[in-house]
Amino acid sequence: MQNHPGNASMPSSSTSRKPAANKSTKPKTSSTPPASKQPKKSARDAQPKAASKVEPKADSKPSFLETASPEQRRAAIAELLGGGQVSSQASLSAALVKRGIEVNQATLSRDLKALGVVKGPGGYKLPGTIAASAPSGLAGAVRAWVVSAVPSQNFVIVRTPPGGASPLAVAIDRAQFGEILGTIAGDDTIFIATPDVRSAKRLLGKLSNLGGGEG
Fold this sequence. Notes:
The protein is an alpha+beta fold. 37% of the residues lie in helices and 12% in strands. It is built from eight helices and six strands, in the order H-H-H-H-E-E-H-H-E-E-H-E-E-H. The protein has helices spanning 43-46, 70-83, 89-98, 105-115, 127-133, 138-145, 165-175, 197-210, and strands at residues 118-120, 123-125, 148-152, 155-159, 182-185, 189-193. A four-stranded antiparallel beta sheet has the order 3-4-6-5, with helices on one face. The longest helix has 14 residues, at 70-83. The termini are far apart.
């Protein structure tokens, strides 16, 4: 039996194709852990952080202070000393600050020396006021400030209370004794230089007489 071309067997269309494999997709993992596993925030962390305060730097000196000239400073010092009692350099410096004048201790010491200021029992005084405050001139100064006086070779060494050496030395210098070559005053001690031992003893006698015989 002849096969006709029309009767040729055709591949069966019923051949089943294999279904395409479904590509399995992995579930995306979230970077945020579950609520149960999240770290608990403390009450301190929950509070907003306060902004740090920047404290302004304290100015070490008032803005009105100025550096005065030596003449201006000394005029102010003389006025302050003449107007009332000044017991220390610290109180004098504070009084100058109130006037708008800044001065350190070393400069203030130089100003006091240049003005001839001396420190007596009542505080710092100008040279003219020292003489005026002594009721009997040198005799009053000797009675007020001499604690002891002794000779040593051609020197007479005078002891005074603290702060008494300078005003007493000023009073002794103004007396212009012929036996005196010069005086050196500290805080409570005066060294008086004389030409020789005899002059020192003679000067000591004069001071003792002025003080009422005490020596």
